[in-house]
Structures
1.
Amino acid sequence: MRRYSAFAIAREAARFHSGWERAWASPEPKPDYQVVVIGAGGHGLATAYYLGKNHGITNVAVLEKGYLGGGNTGRNTTIIRSNYLQDASAAIYEKARSLFETMSQDLNMNVMFSPRGVMMLAQTEHEVRGYKRTAQANALQGVATEFISPGRVKELVPIIAIDGPRYPVLGALWQPRGGTARHDAVAWGYARACSDMGMHIIQKCEVTGVRQKDGRVTGVQTSRGDIGCKKLAIVVAGHSGRLAGMAGFRLPIDSVALQALVSEPIKPAMDVVVMANTVHGYMSQSDKGEMVIGGGADGYNNYTQRGSFHHIEETVRALVETFPIISRLKLLRHWGGIVDMTGDRSPILSKTPLADCFINCGWGTGGFKTIPGSGWAMAELVAKGEPGPLAAAFGLDRFREGRFIDESVAAGVAH
Ligand SMILES: Cc1cc2nc3c(=O)[nH]c(=O)nc-3n(C[C@H](O)[C@H](O)[C@H](O)COP(=O)(O)OP(=O)(O)OC[C@H]3O[C@@H](n4cnc5c(N)ncnc54)[C@H](O)[C@@H]3O)c2cc1C
């Protein structure tokens, strides 16, 4: 595949952009593959990419029921951070964050990684204690964060009302190398690189059943016929419970809609990401000038990929207290995605009761930021049949053994 470069842009501009190749091929499915990955979201595509790049396995198909990146990967608010409390989480989230630093070069696709800094406001004494504790844990884990004063918050984000009215800003957990990236480009970049390695990305191909013999996976039934495989990776976020059901096991996962909205574009007003967990909302400004606003998850299980008006009202009402200037903004659009929540708010990267079938899910409201780290760890699990150091703590057995990785920092709104 031809490389993207400044020279290529100049060349194509001179010939009316007639020479661009398709970014990825659309092949017909083969009868068999070494590995089938279900789900062409970021995590599925990254799994395929690192199977090829790190383990030399390229006889891979990624099956997607819709279009690639059309699930949560293309619906999230793109916050990237690694300031988690538990060591196992910090390790995989920081691995992912560090891979974002060089992703545009690695994939030869501009994913617009913008390490502009992520700030999590402390608006109660409880949060102050919690974030100070996290900052200390991060120092031990080698993750660069600090607890900053209200004055420093105001300096970094002049549009914040630090004095209240209900919840004054008492400080913040600040990760200067956290930030955002262009979500579609992450999916497109991995897809293009996978296709370049000869892998098959098959869109509009829904998996409807999992074939097995003598306790081992042998393939999948799909809307485009049966496809055999030696190993199967299920990477379908909010649909994980359904796929696990097809493979014959149950998951400790709730699927719920999580919503977000964007405003009309305005002049540059805020150049960091701010999360306000107490009032329940977060905001960043996109390169186009829109304020990207995220709210909470629905309080009941559902599979609707839609926004709803009560969420907009709750989220905007909460944020207006901290950012009074947004009260006059017009809303441009809002939407929802189905996220997969575990009880301890930590992911599952695991072998399953079905031999040679592996699952990656449970990233809940915060899995965009881990796409590269998760793909790296999942590829190792699939290639070797056993988890490597990044995935070892995230097995399904932890729910049976009561060995939870309780990520209070990851809970609720904190994407
Ligand atoms: C509104 C919102 C805001 C968010 N904000 C953030 C954020 O700021 N930062 C952050 O880190 N995370 C955020 N997240 C979470 C993040 O988007 C997800 O954790 C992440 O994208 C999950 O990626 P994935 O590849 O696992 O899933 P997805 O991108 O959902 O991909 C799974 C794919 O599997 C496909 N699939 C399902 N069933 C089948 C089947 N039977 N056969 C074939 N294909 C199937 C789906 O069509 C889908 O394309 C947010 C999520 C939402 C919804």
Note: The first helix runs from residue 6 to 14.
2.
Amino acid sequence: MAGDDAATRRAGAVLTIDLGAIAANWRGLRDAGRASGKPVDCAAVLKADAYGCGAALVGPRLASEGCRQFFVAHIDEGITLRQVVPDHSIYVLNGLMAGTEGDFIEHRLTPAINHLGQLNAWRTAAQRFDRPLNAVIHVDTGMHRLGFGPDELSALINDHRGRLRGLRLALVMSHLVASEEQQNPVNGEQLQRFRTVIQALPGAPASLANSSGIFLGPDYHFDLLRPGAALYGINPLPGQPNPMLPVVTLEARVLQVRRVDAFQTVGYGGAWRASRPSRVATIALGYADGYFRTLINRTHVHVAGKRVPVIGRISMDLVTIDVTDLGEAECQPGTAVEVLGPHQSPDDIAEHARTNAYEVMTALGRRYARHYVEGSHA
Ligand SMILES: Cc1ncc(COP(=O)(O)O)c(C=O)c1O
């Protein structure tokens, strides 16, 4: 098991995060943006604690790599990130909530302005605090979730000088609905709508592509790429080989190994019944650590590189695995079991749990001992 410190000795499971792989993934995406010869910049999306990887370390690591623009969802995520990323742009995607204008200004955060009400409030703040303020305009081109819809957009475009008075338009952005489906016509439709918008708001940098959007090609790149998932090793091309480096390894410790007779059951509800005399190992993680209950009888782990089925219900703190086919010496109390790693990616586990790797990553537990390594990724 990685590490030999006291926290690791006490921990039920150890999460190892390869900061060097995150940095290499960022460089690869940045270079994809530059491949067309245009000066496309690459930001990093660090919301949800950098998709579970730890924004406090990922932020500075990417800043040292040359990343100068960061996105979070909540203002509090921005305030926390500001402490470790003092000099670069931090954009708050969920926007400006009433009464938080002073917090944005104090921590030099830029809200994504999602509707006219927020724009009015931000313009008023610029007057009240008597200083020009940066703003991101988020345009809805089809997600129908956040951002300026057609009517509000027309109102903005028709009087953009007045509506943006005292503000500096740092970015016009939109978000793709189905960028991971390369053949989906909605991508092209959103692209056309976005082009129309930026023609009407000239001069501002533009951003459309999330991770998968980058792989839709240079038409989607505009001035700024906005990857999150791919930085953390999630496959931006589902169904195709993953071009990103893996980032996380999760190892859980075996607490106990026991013999179970044929026909005896294991765990809550007796949801798994032995068909033969078996050996069952209990490992130290559970649904409280983000190991989903939907994984019941549907996934596996690896012990000494060998695939071992997860059996029975997932408990809050414990998971049981069938180690009957392993040699006894291979699985003892204390043995490290690979839950995520070279043999099984977050995308694999997501498929077993019928979710996506984003949810697997952002659910990664707070009880794991965490190790940050640099890997070796030139
Ligand atoms: C507005 C916006 N931009 C960019 C991203 C990053 O997307 P991805 O993680 O797919 O790269 C997200 C994440 O959901 C987002 O909400």
Note: The chain is about 30% helix and 25% strand.
3.
Amino acid sequence: MTHPTDPVALTAELIRCPSVTPSEGGALRLLETRLAAAGFECHRIDRAGVSNLFARWGAKGHERTFGFNGHTDVVPAGDTAAWTSDPFGAEIRDGQIWGRGATDMKSGVAAFVAAAIDHVTETPPDGAIVIAITGDEEGDASDGTVAILDWMATEGEHMAACLVGEPTCRATMGDMIKIGRRGSMTAHFTAHGVQGHTAYPQRAQNPIPAMARLVERLSAYPLDEGTRHFDPSTLAVTTFDTGNPANNVIPGSCRASVNIRFNEVHTSDSLTEWLNEEIARVADETGVRFEMEVQVSGESFLTPPGALSDLVAEAVKAETGIAPELSTSGGTSDARFVKDFCPVVEFGLVGKTMHQVDERVEMAQIETLKRVYARILTAYFG
Ligand SMILES: [Zn+2]
């Protein structure tokens, strides 16, 4: 019998690759070498300066293809002097590995790569395993998982189900699976009035009260009451600026932005329509003209509880003793792209120190995570 792949050692090796977005840092090369040695067919799908890796074991297009998705890029270490150990040193101390990417998400990648390699080596399945790793999740994500999925569609590659290995647990290993995510969009408003002297306000048209009215209405508006699987949608005013340094001048324009996290009751289109209506109302009432620019980070999505979430939940329960909550909380992830390709769920370890100084992970959690992924593969191909 061959030696099982050690997910802790692989995590440490990945942390030592300084893969700060969009730098590949040697992380994908390392994985490519390991996966190729285990019989995976590997393709580098690099686009617009971003490095991505696609690896498949088994026949292309096999109807039973299980996919894993993750990223090896990390956010910058920030103030390295504030770290108690080298952020790219992968020091082992107190039963934990320390370093940038320890939780988000080199440990997750190491765990599924180790589980997949062992699975195809020890119990070659009648099916295929796809591993898709991007080097651009923490950046703007436009040439990461999207590039891999575009390439897969062109090449006739298949995935029947996919698991994203981002950290999903809240407090305890096994307590949460994500079956969907809220959408996210930002709207930037500019209100145009007429600049003038504060002593003669009748000759000016102050855009600030109009903008204040707009953001007050938007933030007071109940978007919905939540749904069976989602919390209520939220709107937060994120900035409100005139940049006016003079106290005797009524400014000619003013800007504000809002960020909306929305559930499946809405789409970015329906929300844009609503924002336009509210703007038109305030413009009517005040005579101030508005411009709006919308940026959509992702639509909301839900993989309804069913075969895939059951499979993952049972594996989590068997390894951790905890029945995971099926949640749609948190920010966006690359699952928002995968969902257009096949059903997708997310499960990974506890994400407590993500993006922080002294990011670290308990080694025992990585071992457990690998066992959960291994159990998912066994059940899927069983
Ligand atoms: Zn991540």
Note: The pocket of zinc ion is lined by residues 71, 104-105, 137, 166 (CB under 6 Å).
